[in-house]
Amino acid sequence: MSTTNPYITDLGRAPYELAHLMRTLPVSMTVDHVMTTEERQKAQAAIAHASNANYALLAGMEAIGNILFAAVTNENFPPKEETLSSIAALITHMAVEAQVMQETQSDLQSNLDVDAERAARAQPQKRAAK
């Protein structure tokens, strides 16, 4: 767990933590909505989890690629067709999941950026109302 953000937890389970946080954030926010501190921390944690999950997916795919290149020099290569088919399905799934992580990370960052602008605009109004 992060000492600065209580929602950055269990980094080894980043996709699960991301999905959990996404279920707790508002589905949509009105134009004048300024995030609460808790919503902002959850969004920031979700961004971190999306980034961590994406890194693990891409590093894993790179490792599989390296192993497959090494296997080409093996006299027992190619393996059975079903083995290659399973590897292909796994890599395809991981690539799609990585795309989701990138889009989620980008969308959440955009929401945080817009929220920061709303919060900055709201500050002078609050001071004037006092």
Terminal residue distance: 38 Å
Percent helix among the residues? over 70%
Content-based structural category: mainly alpha
Q: Note poorly predicted spans.
A: none
The number of helical segments is 3
Largest sheet: none
Shape: elongated
Output mean pLDDT.
83
In angstroms, what is the radius of gyration?
A: 21 Å
H-E string: HHH
Which assembly state applies to the chains in this document? single chain
Beta strand count: 0
Strand content: under 5%
SSE topology:
Layout: H1 14-24, H2 37-71, H3 81-129
Task: Give a description of the structure.
The protein is mainly α. The model has no long low-confidence stretch (mean pLDDT 83). The chain has helices at 14-24, 37-71, 81-129. The protein starts with 13 loop residues before the first helix and ends with a helix. Helix 1 runs antiparallel to helix 2 (37-71) and helix 2 (37-71) runs antiparallel to helix 3 (81-129).
